[in-house]
Structure formats: C-alpha cells, structure tokens
## 1
Amino acid sequence: MPQVPILMPQLGESIAEATIMHALVQPGDTVVADQEVFEVETNKAVMGVTTSCGGKVLSLSVSEGEVVPVGAIMGIIEATEEEIERSGASILEEGTQPATPAETAPGSSPAAQDGAHFRTVGEYREASPGSGEKQSSGRGLPVPIGMRGAHFLSPRIRARMDELGITEADLAYIIGSGPGGRITIDDFEDFLNYVDGWPSRKASPMRRSVASSMQRTWRRPIASAGRPIYMAPIILHRKNHPRRPGITLYFVRALALALAESPECAGYMVGGRILTPRRIDLGVAVQVADGVMVPVMRGVNESTLDELVDEFNKVVQQARERRLDPGYQGGGIATVSNFGGFGLTHATPMPLPSESLILGVGAVQKVPVWSEEVQCFIPVEQAQIVASFDHRVVDGGDIGRLMQRLAHYLEHPELL
C-alpha cells in the first residue's frame, strides 16, 4: 500500500523547529484525516501536528524531547489509494528515509548542554599564574576597552561557535590572551573545558527564544523613564465595576488611548525613516514556565474597557496554558508588563525586538505625600510605572508627555 509521511509543518512565522512533547498515536493505530498525532512545543506555544490523510500508522521516527526541524518526516502512514486521492496527500517517494532530527537542538550541542555558565571576570583575574589557568599575555587590558582586536573572532572560533550553538554574548566572561585582548582559539577551548561538568540544565525552546529576543533588542539604544501613578481611582472603579476588570487591563486600555493620540511614540526607525503604527495592537506580558508569552490584543483603542474584559481574560488564560490562538500571536506595537504582581516596585522592562516601547507597572504601595490642603503628610496608594523605549525614535520629552496622558486616563478611569 502507498505510504504517506507525517511532516513537521510550518507552525508559525519565523518558526524553524519544534520540540516533541507527546506522541498521541503508536505504530499500528488507525487514524483519520486531520487527526492530531503529535503535541509539540515551539518557542511561542504548545501546538498539535495532524495527519494529511487517514490510514494505519506504520512507524514513528521521532521521540519525546527531540527537536525536529520544519519539513522533517516524523512518521509514516499506510493509506489506501482511494484515501490518498480523496485527501490529496503526498505519497512518500520510493527510497526516501525518514529525516533523522538533530540529536541536539541548535544552541544545545553536547558541550552547550553540559555547561551553559561561563566563568566570571573575577575568577579569571584571581587565577594564579601557576595554576595552569589561561592568563592574559599582558599585551592588552584584562577587560579590553575600545580596542578592535578584542572584538575580533577568527573564522575558526566562529565555526566552533556555530557548531556548539554559542553566541558572541556567551563569550562575555572570557578574557582574551591575544593581541589587544583578542580571544584566541586556545582561550575558547580552555573556557569550554573550564565549564565542562558544571551543574546545568538544557535551555527550553521558550528560554532560547527569550534569550534571542533580548540580544536583538539590546542592539538598539534603549532608555527608560518612570513616574508614580495614583491608584485609588482605579481601585475604587474596579471595586464598583460589575465585571471587575484586571488591573493590567486598565493600563492596557489607557496606553492604547494615549498612543492613539501620539502613535509616533511606538514608531519604528528603518534607515532614515520613522514608521508610524497603523493600528493600536498591544501585547500583555504573561509569565509562563521558563519564560514569558506576549499575547497581542488588536485595536485596543477601538473598544471600551468593559468590552475588552472577556478578550483580555481569554488571551491571558491561553498564554498561561501556552495554547495561544495564532490570531493573538505577534504584530504588537507595544507591550504592558505588570511586574508588580511579583511584589516588584521598580524594574526596567525590555521591549521586544519588533516593538520600540514597553510599559512596566510596579506594585501598589502606600506612601506619604504632602497635602497643601491639610498641611501634613497623608497616605496615598501609588504605583511606579516605567516606560522603556527606543531612544532613536523618541526622546524623554515625548515619553514624558505620553505618560502624562496615560496618568490622566488612569486617574480618571471613567474615560476608559
């Protein structure tokens, strides 16, 4: 009988691989068209892989924990010619073997898995000359400052980095012994030997995705500005609201209205042009196991606070379960991160590489504020908000005016 491959599909934009979580069928099982046969984890969500036709599962070529690239053969189904004709499925060409997934994911080769922690600058400095540890030759500063040689990596080192899935950011703790502080291949290999055997764990797809995003974000000049917000109006409004919107939703809605008035604050710089967003689509940072997911709500300025409650609750729940609908993935112009839920009063959140603005919300505190009316300090409920932004696009004054409008809406929640 003809054989039909089960292929790893393209599960989203820019997704090149997925990790096998569970096989939902076994060899010998009978399946129907569009039946979910694998549960896989991408860097964005947990998703299902389905069959292209019905038939009998002949074999599975992947197992739990393996990282499988898009297009790889995950198994084979034996199907009738009638079923193949009905479904339009592609037949496995004669002589084709199931693609064997890489034994380790990009960025998680054996050496990378065994030790993902680099020695500190202090440990390098404290190594004694007689200990056999790699020492600086003295031809450059221990931590090179403004020297081109310190940033040069030879093709041989880059080839090893690609082989092991190591990035330049991972080399920050190595002090080079070459001219001008350059990292030599011996420095690199000594470093790998040094961290070999350290306690470690394999970075999950989510963790690798967060790491990649933050590295790309840091290529831009990111600045932060903050101010306090009086929270009593929001707390009272929420208490009297029949649907009790989440505190974070107040900030999402207020930011949407403020950005609708000043969309350039969430613009993008491309070459010599600054692009202005066409729609106010805002993300919400949701903490999940080993990372953060950011579901994106569309056209937030076009709906009232009351109208957004159900959608907000739905996307947050989906994000926590890591089963986010594709319509809520990506494409945001800014994000709201309520780090106050963890008791933090101040932080400097980092925007996604595809965004130039993120608003962080701190924990509510009672603080003494001087009252001219009663001529004494009175307790006031406040939260610190922090906006981190691409300084190429906007300046502190622009962000200051944006946050003034944001504060106005938050302190008059009936406008939301």
## 2
Amino acid sequence: MSELKVEADPAEVGLDAERLRRIDARFARYVDEGKLAGWLVTVSKHGRLAYVSRHGQRDNEAGLPVETDTLWRLYSMTKPVTSVAAMMLYEEGAFQLTDPVSDFIPSFADVRVYSGGSDLRPVTVPATEPVRIWHLLTHTSGLTYGFHRNHPVDSMYRAAGFDLGVKPAVDLARACDIWAGFPLLFQPGSEWAYSVATDVLGRVVEVASGQRLDEFFAQRIFGPLGMTDAGFCARAEQLPRLAALYARGPGGTAVRADALDEAKEPPMMLSGGGGLVGTAADYHRFTQMLLSRPESPAGELDGVKLLSPRTVAYMGSNHLPGGADLEAIGRRLFAETPYHGIGFGLGFAVVLDLAKRQGHGSPGEFYWGGAASTAFWCDPEEDLFVIFLTQLMPSSTYNFRGQLRSLVYAAIEE
C-alpha cells in the first residue's frame, strides 16, 4: 500500500501553517452541517507534501472515519490518467495526434453530424473531417454525454443506456461502436463539449497497445509509480476502506447514494473517462509525476519516466482553436470547470487569464475534477499541487473547489 506522509513543515516550502488550518475550519463546517460525510485534502509545494488534513466519516451510517488510506471514486479524475497513457503511446510512435480514430476503431469511419430534427428523427450531414485522436484529447470531437440532457443526441445516448451512474452491459469496444453510430453534436474541431471522448481514447490505448486498459494502467502507470491501490474497482480486501457515496438530499444534507455506486464489482466497460478508484496517496504519486522537482523533471518520479518534460508541457498548453477559452468555443454544458479565462490542453483544463477566471491561480495551471466533488490542480509557476477528495454527487452541488483554491493561495508566503 502506498503511504501518505508529510515530508516538510509548511514554512520550509513557503506556506503559512496557520492559514492552511483555515481549510480545516471551513470544510469541517460542511461535515458538521451534514452537507458532507467526510473529506481529505493534500497540499504539496516544491515537490514535498506539506499539509494533509481530513475530517468526518468515510461511511456515516457505519461510523467509519476518513483515514489517509481511504479509497475514493475518482470519476473524471480518471481522464488525466487515460490522457497520460495515450501520450506515452504517442511518444513511442504508436500514432500521431492527427490520425483518424477510425484507424483504431473502424466504426468511427464516415461519422455524421446532427443538423436538426429530434432524437427519434434526426437530420444529419457528413462530417467534413474525421474525428482525430487530438479531438478526443481536447473534447472537440463532437461526442457528448447522456446526462447533459441538453440536446436530442444526449437523449440518444440515454435511450441506449448511457446515463450518469448507469451503463448497459457492454464492453468498451462495443460502447465505442454504439457512440460512433450516433450523430456528433458539431463538426470535429469546431467547438468544445464535455463528453465520452476520453472513454473512446481509452479504447484507442487498448488497440494501439494490444492490452486491456486495466492491464496497461497497472503495468505501465500504477505499478511503476507505486499507485498500489488504484484500479477500476475496489478489490474484496479494499472494500472496508472504500468511502460510501452520497448525493445532495432534502435541505442540502448528504444522503447515501448506493444506487449510483459502480465501484464494488469489476466493470464490464473499462471507463477511461471515469472508472478509477484510488487513495490520496495514489493520486498524489500521479500528480507529483506531472510537475518538475529539483531531483527530476516533469513526467518522471523516483527514477520512473513515463513522459518527457516536453510532452507534459505540451499537454498543459491550450489546444483550443485560435487560442480561445472555453467561454468562446465551449457548449454551455456541465463540465468540471468554469469557462471564462480557461482553455483546454491534452487531458485537462488550463488557466489562461486570471482576471477573466475571477479567482486565484497562475497562468499555465492545469487541473480537473470528478463527479463526486473530487479535484486536483497543478500550478507549475508556484510549484504547487493540491488534491481534494470527498464523495458527494454531483460536483456542482457546492463550490468546494473555488473555496479551497482561495484558502490555499492565501497561505502562500513566497
């Protein structure tokens, strides 16, 4: 089991310990008010873990507290892992980012684009260019999510059994073929919309590598990085450490949401977009790898090199057409990010303009979050990364992330 150990006093890395303790006071209130069962946060600077705090229960009903080895559903914090896997293969020459997805998933040949009509009688036109791997990494493919409930194509996804917390009994290969049969929301590369694109990218990883996605993750990422608890479900011996899943109930109180739970049995569909579980220590290892440190460059950790620093920097740059932000090019749909002043790289959001963002941070910061209100961010300018783990659906219930960001940046002294 990977361990979560504080490596430095906050003052040693330029953080004010008293101000960091404001995090405890603020977020403990959510537990005391019944809005959260429990949570855990880590703050690291200059490559050293300087602050770990936790409060509340991993399981309210059983009276089990949050521990440093609690297992959490990562949901869309899986996406950066899948994106790293894809870029590892890209570095090996397995594909170019401009390659059509149909080279690996033939059903994506000759996709069509929605132009009118209803979900039952859609009017479509041919795609003017193929869906490319780059489109999957940047969410500019035209794919969507059924849970958006915003467009006739979303309804098609739900009619096929793809909704929040629900999937039909199909494997990843079959799921991709089903999605390829639906119209795209827009011409590939013309707009941005949060979607199943990273799940499709996971299938590209499988075909390009010749391995199942869980095998690739275990052998090429989790094992080398020492992410010993990470996987696509909680194993039998891990179940006592798995946090219960909650949703917002009457009056804003957290109520148990076992019906949405997908983490206790091996899934038929390996979701590269949202299927992983792991501990804070696991995700700390992964996130630490993404930032450079005095002893090693970005893409490397403890002598294990997954990516070159150039590739990590490339992933963390804005890839939206014309350098636009999400407000300019994004569909007004749910996503794990605000839109103003935010671009998108290869697997995560990227901060472009702090004034437009209207919040703390640094240009070049990259981040993402998960449906159960989890979040992480990496700030190369401040040499800082933060992880927040809890289990409340959906992540839009409260602005935990904005509050945590304000508290952390207020504690930076240097």
## 3
Amino acid sequence: MAQPEIKLIDTVTKLDDGHRDVVLIGASHGGVYAACCAARAGVRAVILNDASVGRDRAGIGGLAYLQALGLPAATVDAATGCIAHAADMAEHGRISHVNAAAAALGATAGQATMACAEALRAAPAWTGTAPPYDEARFVLRAAAGAPRVIGCDSASLIDRDDDAGAIVITGSHGALLGGRADMAVPNGLLAVTFNDAGVGKDGAGIRRLALLDTYPTIAATVAAGTARIGNARSAWDDGIVSHVNETARAAGAAPGMALRAFVDRVIETADK
C-alpha cells in the first residue's frame, strides 16, 4: 500500500480536499485552532511551528487537542524553522515537541523536520471528527468620536471595509506567509498588532512590521511570553509590546508598553 504524500503549506487556514490523508507540514503556530483546521481537513498527521511555545504553552496547545483525537502531531522549534514559511521549516527545522501518537511512530524531539514527516507517513488514515472550534472576532472598545478597537483571533478575520480606520488587535503571528509582501494585512487600518511568536529564526515572527511602514500603518507585536498566540483577548488583557515599526515609533509607541497603553497612545495621536 502506498504511503501518504508529504505536503507543505504556509498556513493551515487554506486547506482543502487536496490535503486529505496527507502528512502535512504546516507553518502556522501550533495552537488549538491550527490543529482543528488540520483535523477538519482529514490529514493523517501534521507538523506545525511551536511559535516559541509562549504563554500558557499556547504555541503547542494543538498537540494535546490532536492527541485526544488520536491524530499524530509535532511542532518545529521556531528558532530553527521560520514560522509562516513551510519550505524553510521542511529544509532547516528541528522538532521541538511531539504528542504520544506521533512518538509511537518514531517522531522525537531533535529530529529533522523531514525525518519526522517520513516517520509520520506510517500513521493510519484518520477518520475521526474534529469538535467545533472557531476563531473569534469582537469589538474591544467603541467610543463616540474615537477609532474602534477590534479583536481578531486571526488576521484572516480582518475586514477590509468594516475595519478601515480601526485599530485591530490580532492573535496572529507577525510573519509574512511564505515571506510574501502581499500577505500582510489589508491597507487602510489605523493600527494593527500581532503576537511576535518569540521572534524566531531570521526575525520571522515580526516581519510584517517593516512592510506596514510602507502603507503606512502603525504596527506592533506583543511578546509571546505575555499573551497566548491565537488569542486576541489575551493580547488585549495582558500583552506587553515587544517590537514596533517606525510608523508606530513616530506616534509615540515603544517596546515595554502595555498593549492598552499602546492603543491609548495611537488614539491620542490620531486626535491631534
């Protein structure tokens, strides 16, 4: 019997029927929503990026979720393989964490990504059902005469029209998908923030910031150790700014600020 194909993708939010029954190297963070996307697509096994693990181990939260479903999963150390860049993870990455189902197939921490993927090809076809789990979009602050503050667990939930002129707090990493400049966020936002995913290899986790200077859009990341990646409300409640772009710096923002203080500063600047 032929073994399953190994496929690469820069974000697991773009899976389709062509990813069913494959061993997937997906460059999304290893949180629960990414794991759910992989399960919904019917993969045999998946390798994600650990996003430097971060607060409450959110960057690898998907491993336990998939273990409960009986689906083998592993993560690549973000310091060895660029988040949002599956080809880099496949070529250079080293495995940081595996769940028990993956370990039973020979996946281990320290393994090269492709060696892990080869081991996971022995996984049986998975026929389970992923329980519901959806990323959320919500209003964090709305005051008359001030820009709205919108929370989006994923940058994919930003609405080009509805969010024009708004401040958007995302739970997404600050990387560019596949390193592509056209994969940032829609133009027209007043400001946007991301999770820095521990920054990682080649500064991948914060690459969107400099690109957003060209729009220009105020942009910043919160430190992965202060807010759960994939969770905009966690960033809003507890996030501490780790990096800012030049547009944000000109607006008076700086690393070390609480995210809510960053938002206040952006609004103050917009009022002038």
## 4
Amino acid sequence: MLHFGIIGAGNIAHKFIEAVRMTTEADVTAVASKSMERAKAWAKKESLSLYYDSYEKLLADPDIDVVYIATLSNAHYDNIKACLLAGKHVICEKPMTQTGAQAREVIDLAREKHLFLMEGMWSRFLPKSTRVRQWIRDGRIGELHLMQANIGWKADKEYSRRLFYPELGGGSLYDIGIYPMELLPYYADQKILAMQFLKKDYPTGVDDMVSLNLQLEHCIANIQCSFTTKMPEDAYLYGSDGYIHIPKIHFGNRARLYDLNDRLVEDFHEGEENGFYYEAKEVISCIQKGQTESAVCPLEMTLENARLFDQVLRGEGRD
C-alpha cells in the first residue's frame, strides 16, 4: 500500500482523498495545515488519524510515501521543493509552478532524487479524453485542421478571492486557461510550434481575459479564458471528414462525434463522476513500477506550458 499525505486542507483535496479511497492500492494517512484547528477539523471530517500544524512535520513522517499538494498556486514551488528534499514523491495541483524557471528547477530536482513528480492535470486521464485521442488517431474525423475551446465564469470576489490578486497566484490562465492549453495538444498528439495572444488585465494586475492562437505541427488551436465572463467551457475539434464536440472540456464523461452533415455518429458517455480517480490510479501505477513521471502528463508538458505562460504574463521568451 502506498500512503498519501495531504499538504493544504482545501476543498479540492476532499475529492482527491475520495478518489484514492476508490483504489485498492493506496490510502491517505495524514493532512497538514498551517492551522492546527483547521488540520484537526479536516482530519476528523476525513477520518484521518494523523494531522499536523506544519508541512515540515508531515514531511518528517517516515510512513508517508507520496504527497498531494493542494495549496494556493503561489506556494507550489516551495512546497514541491520541500517534499522532494524530504524524499517524498509528489503530485501537485495545477499549475505546478508559476514560471518556467521554477518548473525547470523542481523537475531537475525530482530527476536528481529519482522521485516521481507530476502536475495534477487530471482531465487528461478522463475516459472521454482517451476516447477523443483514439477517434483522432483512427482518422474518424479525417485530418485534424482546427481546434477551439473556451472556458470561463464570473468569479465571486470574496469566495474566489485568490483569483484576483497576483500575490495569491491569481489570474485566468493559471486557474482555468491551463486546461485547454494542456488538453488540446494532447488530443491532437502534436507539439505547439508558435503562439499569438491578446490579454486584458484586471485592475489588480492579474490576467482577466486571454485569447490564444496556437500553431501546432499540423493544425491550429484557438483558446479563450476569463474569470469575469461566463463561457460554455466546451471544445470543438474540426477535421476534413467531421468534427468532435466535447462538452465541459475539463470535466465530465461525454464526447460526441459528428460527420460532415452534422449527424451524430458516436456519443461517448462513460466514466466515474469523480474524475480524480483516474489520476490517482496513474500516480499509484507509476510509483509502483518505479517510474518517475507519467507518460500521460509528462514533465516536459508542464515545462513547455510554464514557458508559454511566461510569454503571455511576463513578456519573456518572445523574439
């Protein structure tokens, strides 16, 4: 059995714990928060026997094999380094880091320590994502020409306060734009060769609305994201012989295949409601096999995406 520890007693970690408990190869044994009161209450809710009021205490626990990091994204870099230096395997919520330099550093450290490291892009593991890739690979829509995706909602300034401030790792790209950025190239199984973008900032300085045009090896992708504008959150993949519609690109269990006459050819609708289950299974399987990264969510994917975000958010790396 692999034993998971949780750093960051946030809402998203509840779903991850549920997913781990759906497997038979691992369990969650401890949680750490900077507040003992919060850690204790959170552990009680999840029936965990161990809870700590510092991350260092959890990392000193010799029985914990893997750490799931669910803190705010501005803390991920420091959290990952601490876990790796303590000899723990790591799965970290997206975005794994906030700059390409940070991504390069933690990836190099994980490889030096021979430890597993993965960004939690759980949407890549959904059964519908696997089916979409298969449809494209089998030529079900012919030659892939164009992909489009948008994702956005109107965030509440109090409940979603972290989105509005740079010091909390806010912004639409980090929070939601990362999904289509890391999913569309995966569906196409193609690398990003070039990027154009338009960006509108919120008054606090974070990116509120971003529009991206990506040149992949054999097709083009368009992406829009925002945390102040509601969008359908769907994706469309257009080919020479048909197209694919993916409702709610980053979650759910449905994908639809259409021909050139808009006739529904195949309606895929399968999978667990808690999509974190597939991600947890991948992490467990990789570690059991002695692998230090996932082929589905490779570290080069995380590094490349971080470098592209550097261009959009900081103007780095442009000619």
